[in-house]
Design goal:
Distance between the termini: 52 Å
Helix content: under 10%
Number of strands: 8
Radius of gyration: 20 Å
CATH class: Mainly Beta
Largest sheet: 4 strands, antiparallel
Mean pLDDT: 85
Low-confidence stretches: 1-23
Order of helices and strands: HEEEEEEEE
Amino acid sequence: MAARGPLPALTLVALAGCAGAADTAVDPGFLVAAVVPEDGDDDVVRSVNPALRVNASADPATCTTDTVRLVRVTAGDAVASEVECTLSFPDDGLKIKLDPVGGLTSGYGYMLTVRSGTSGCTDTDRRVVRPFASRFFVP
């Protein structure tokens, strides 16, 4: 079989006047738009309260500690233990704030997840959140 060279780069061309009103108003669904601390942050202070910024009002009946979880992990993700948290929903539910009971522990990595699916977190319009996971480290 003959060797092929690199694939040509694709060029996207916008055709003027082709987009209709329906094309410009695409609903992205319910999703996590931002997270604190940022994914991959490796210098997080123990006193931080992790928070998720969502693009629609979260429903506190479905966005619970069963669907929004903070887990402490050891090196290599060999052992994980759930961190007990209380949740609050400031900014009319556009933010999901986690308050870890007793704070975070130095020397550990943490994973913040939001469960999707039929038993997952939803917004007040009953749209299911897109799956989400983020990691950070407290030195």
